[in-house]
């Protein structure tokens, strides 16, 4: 499996990426990738250490003559977002990722690829092993649980790192250097409900599904006009509830806090006398959705299929109304654009998942902003929608943003290196997605940081892919930066 990857350049990076594809590494389940990295360090004689949370630091000695240069930290996270298509049987806890080459892009078969940030991990390992590269002392920092809580970066101790220059290898647009990011927090809602006996006659059971959406990263892709499956299915349910006397038995939509929901489904009862009209209504809604998202969601599907599942319990009418009204009112998407940076999202919110459990509906949302007060404001806005329905709401502690430093020494060095290599200046930007740099900078206020990477698309979804040719440029760029790091 994945043998064709070994034919790609640069060989070292792809060799280690192939190995990483075969190691399960879901967020909060990183034991196997941690063991892989420890074995790598031991097998190859590198000094390393691991902290209590699971972060690993592997040290590489300077090449002869470069011992007095400043130490550089190469940082990447070891976990990956585990998303798959609904018909995939892939088990992220044990199955290797199956990669597929399509032209200049590397995809996975029906799952996320894990190039976010497996490609950063692979690059660090390749650099440690390549004895031909000129560099000073390096520290390769591998952090855990970036995707679901930034736990590794949040728990770094002030004495864990020696270097004060950090290259974060977790960005997704080749030719762009990032020097700032938004902060974020989650708002989690528990809407308790009562269930009542479902009617035994006079109703047909249907499963309503929304699928075929692109999904994507709730930071990078929030402004791209993508549909949210949770919002679409609730739009249907809200209308069907009043027009067709629908009874709701179940709703499940979305998955991860930092992914735009791609799929959702609901189990409902429809009066038999209204079944035909209901089916026609769903067909019309699918046409409306396809028209609204004709450009961004060409594969959108909205279906209602009769189900043989026996429904014994449904939500009470009052709780059904509270849920549907709250979800309809809950904001999703861009809340504000920056007033100082052109075309930059300042504040957003993501209605990530809706899950009916035994006694409550669990609703997970995620807010981001480059302005701390705006982040809190939109989080309170979301919470208020559900507080009106009597729900319990809770905000996570969140994570800080990363304030741009246009006078950064490593930024100046990297810009010159890029122009030397590729004959043009890189774009220097801030990013709406969260990066670990914000938390690292909080613990190490004097850390000089940039973030960059090869081109990835569709991250946090089964459409995730990496542009193969940009990996070589990413590698060359990293080597050139290391060659030009000044002495202490």
Written account of the structure:
- This protein has helices at 11-21, 31-43, 115-129, 146-149, 151-154, 229-243, 275-292, 317-329, 372-387, 409-422, 437-443, 468-483, and strands at 47-50, 56-60, 72-77, 99-102, 105-108, 138-143, 165-168, 176-181, 183-192, 195-197, 203-211, 216-217, 247-254, 259-260, 264-271, 301-306, 313-315, 333-337, 345-356, 360-369, 392-395, 427-431, 448-451, 456-457, 465-467.
- The strands form six sheets. Strands 9, 11, 13, 15, 16, 18, 19, 20 and 21 form a nine-stranded antiparallel beta sheet that branches. Strands 1-2-6-3-7-23 form a six-stranded mixed beta sheet.
- The mean pLDDT is 96.
- By secondary structure, the protein is of the alpha+beta class.
- It has twelve helices and 25 strands.
- Helix 1 (11-21) packs across helix 3 (115-129) and helix 10 (409-422) crosses helix 12 (468-483).
- It folds into two domains: 3-182 and 401-483, Aminopeptidase (3-Layer(aba) Sandwich), CATH 3.40.630; 185-395, Alpha-Beta Plaits, CATH 3.30.70.
- A hairpin with a 2-residue loop joins strand 4 and strand 5 (105-108).
